[in-house]
Design a protein that fits this description.
The complex is a heterodimer of chains A (272) and B (334).
Chain A (H helix, E strand, L loop, with lengths): L3 H12 L3 H23 L20 H10 L3 H10 L4 H6 L1 H6 L5 H35 L4 E2 L5 E2 L1 H33 L2 H20 L11 H4 L14 H27 L6
Antiparallel strand pairs in A: 1-2
Helix pairs in contact in A: 1-7, 2-4, 2-7, 3-7, 4-7, 4-8, 4-9, 7-8, 8-9, 8-11
Chain B lengths: L17 E10 L2 E11 L4 E5 L6 H8 L7 E6 L14 E4 L11 H12 L7 H7 L15 H13 L5 E5 L7 H16 L3 E6 L2 H7 L2 E6 L2 E7 H8 L1 E7 L2 H10 L4 E6 L2 E6 L1 H14 L3 E7 L3 H9 L16 H7 L1
Parallel strand pairs in B: 3-7, 3-8, 5-6, 6-7
Antiparallel strand pairs in B: 1-2, 1-4, 8-9, 10-12, 10-13, 11-12
Helix pairs in contact in B: 3-4, 8-9
The chains are: A mainly alpha (272), B alpha/beta (334).
């Protein structure tokens, strides 16, 4: 019997044929390579004044963390939005939504399959980015130990483990971005508007934190949760930002996903 | 009427394939569909006729559960398509042009839709492609298909569901004459295989050739529903008359009971009447001294009737007043 798994499987199959999939995954792969090339040709070998900067030339394992630091609020949300913002809107625009909604699957199953596919794409993009960064960084600077944010030295295998756990923690706010992307995709019925809108939401939330008088909101902004992974790089591990990220992101993501579901469930499919 | 059991198969029920009652769809002040009532019975090839913008596609979208009615109901084999997608069991079709994923091949598109259908649909792909004569191009990407090929792929996609009811929105629109002929043949063949068909169209020759019943819709309202044969019969036959004294003949025609719509076109008298009235008119003309040179019946086409229902202020419609079996639909439109 067809079900959510059927939709999920075919959504992934469709992603394999679409240019935007490779645009996002290509960006996720090329950025660490360009970053490592830039590090290689940089004349000043002392590093900058940001976390792990001094280790960029000493351990390749610093590369994925620095990329996570700088790409957190815009690059990965954009890559995520490329699919999450498009996955409903493009079907609406092309008229294929009416084609699949007159088969034997109900709207809830179609929505769930699409949500899982968009989330899978985000996971693959971020893990791919981290893996390419580890490999490229290790080729450039070696597979060496790393200094944590607390100043302690972490062995290379342990640091590798922390890199991947950090990527997983980073996926918490990304899940909220997926939900917001799906909501905009369902509401706007316009792929470009949903993709750009998702990125704008991410950036605007970050702007809220720097407005005078709104500093108290900082711990509860979605943008702050993009840095929660840094708690793992402290000794001992600081779980507080990670736990906060889990519930704060749920506050952003669950209502957005619920609204997207209701819009998708109740909407008139009149276009295409 | 209540929705039937979710799992009941189409065709196993005594409910008609399509029963639409008081169906309306309003967009603000615009009434896209206004109090539509129609019934499609098993075996019908039913034409849903109307000019562009008359509300045909909106009606079909509601029948397929794609948009919610403002008021009224749709039942397909007794089931409500807005309640559950299971109401579409045994039902297939498309609204506007059938749409597919352009980056996938025709066969891959059908594989996707068959996966969404389940119930052995995948095993029907090759036969469906054969039926619409697309087997040779099934491996090509749909993005490279012509409009006609996409229409045929749309039919193939519908056949995957082994339908008992096909809902087709303007299936021949945009096709060249050969494609239109092929589509008519295909629809007729599917009907002969026992599939009930409801097709919307503004191509009257197509409808007249393949359909046995029609609803004519104007500005969202149905202005006629019934059999094409009845519609033609009710319209009466138009005759062209030439006599030795047309002025006197014209006066006789106006005075004769059962003769209506009397007019002069290109120095010829035209009128409408049944066979008995025409026989009595012949006698009256002879008695009045207007000898008949020619009395020629004119064929009334569906197109003539369609325009009489959908154009002007409706005055012509009165000349084609339907009989009691069709009167409710007409009265509801007024």
């Amino acid at each position: 019997m067809p079900g959510i798994a059927t939709v999920y499987r075919w959504e992934l199959a469709k992603l394999r044929y679409q240019k935007r999939t490779y645009l996002g995954l290509g960006a996720a792969m090329i950025v660490p390579i360009l970053f490592v090339v830039a590090v290689h040709f940089r004349h000043d070998r002392r590093g900058g004044d940001f976390a792990f900067s001094s280790y960029l030339t000493r351990s390749g394992l610093a590369v994925p963390l620095v990329i996570l630091l700088f790409g957190a609020v815009w690059m990965f949300p954009l890559i995520t939005a490329l699919v999450a913002g498009d996955i409903i809107a493009s079907e609406d625009h092309n008229g294929t939504l009416k084609t699949i909604l007159t088969r034997s699957l109900d709207r809830g199953q179609v929505f769930a399959g699409k949500t899982l596919a968009a989330a899978t794409y985000a996971v693959v993009a971020i893990l791919l980015n981290g893996t390419v960064a580890v490999i490229a960084g290790s080729i450039q600077s070696g597979f060496n130990s790393l200094q944590s944010l607390s100043g302690t030295i972490v062995s290379a295998p342990k640091a590798l483990e922390l890199v991947y756990v950090s990527l997983l923690v980073y996926l918490i706010p990304i899940a909220a971005i997926v939900c917001i992307g799906l909501l905009l995709s369902a509401v706007t019925r316009n792929s470009a508007a949903a993709v750009v809108g998702t990125l704008m939401v991410s950036l605007l939330i970050q702007l809220l934190g720097i407005l005078p008088g709104l500093g108290g909101l900082q711990p509860y902004l979605l943008s702050t949760q993009f840095n929660a992974w840094q708690g793992l790089l402290r000794t001992p591990i600081d779980w507080a930002p990670i736990v906060r990220a889990a519930w704060v992101c749920a506050l952003y993501g669950v209502p957005a996903l619920g609204a997207a579901f209701l819009v998708f469930l109740r909407r008139d499919v009149a276009g295409g | 009427m209540t929705a039937g059991p979710v799992g009941s198969a189409a065709g196993d029920t005594e409910d008609p394939p399509v029963a639409v009652r008081g169906l309306s769809k309003h967009y603000g002040a615009i009434k896209a569909v206004d109090d539509v009532e129609l019934t499609v019975n098993t075996g019908d090839v039913y034409g849903y006729l109307g000019p562009n913008g008359a509300g045909k596609t909106t009606s079909l979208r509601m029948m397929l559960g794609l948009i919610r009615p403002t008021t009224g109901s749709v039942r397909l084999f007794g089931r409500d398509p807005m309640q559950s997608v299971h109401a579409l069991q045994g039902v297939a079709g498309f609204v506007e042009a059938p749409t597919f994923y352009p980056y996938l091949s025709g066969r891959r598109n059908l594989e996707l839709l068959a996966a969404f259908d389940g119930d052995g649909a995948a095993g029907r792909i090759e036969r469906a492609l054969d039926t619409v004569e697309l087997s040779e191009r099934a491996g090509d990407r749909v993005g490279g298909y012509s409009h006609g090929m996409r229409q045929r792929l749309g039919i193939a996609a519908a056949l995957l569901r082994d339908p008992k009811l096909l809902l087709l929105d303007e299936p021949a629109t945009g096709l060249d004459p050969g494609g239109m002929r092929d589509m008519r043949v295909l629809i007729r063949r599917l009907a002969d295989e026992g599939i009930t068909v409801l097709l919307s169209s503004h191509m009257l020759a197509e409808v007249e050739e393949v359909c046995n019943r029609v609803a004519i819709v104007r500005s969202g309202k149905i202005v006629y529903e019934g059999a094409i044969a009845e519609l033609k019969r009710d319209a009466g036959t138009t005759y062209r008359l030439e006599t030795t004294d047309d002025q006197r003949a014209l006066a006789v025609c106006h005075a004769q009971a059962g003769i209506s719509d009397v007019r002069t076109e290109r120095d010829r008298i035209h009128f409408t009447g049944d066979q008995q009235a025409v026989a009595e008119l012949s006698q009256a003309l002879i008695e009045a001294g207007a000898l008949i040179r020619a009395l020629t019946p004119q064929t009334v086409t569906l197109e003539d009737l369609f325009f009489s229902f959908t154009e002007g202020d409706g005055r012509q419609q009165a000349a084609h007043e339907p009989d009691e079996s069709t009167r409710p639909a007409v009265e509801s439109a007024r």
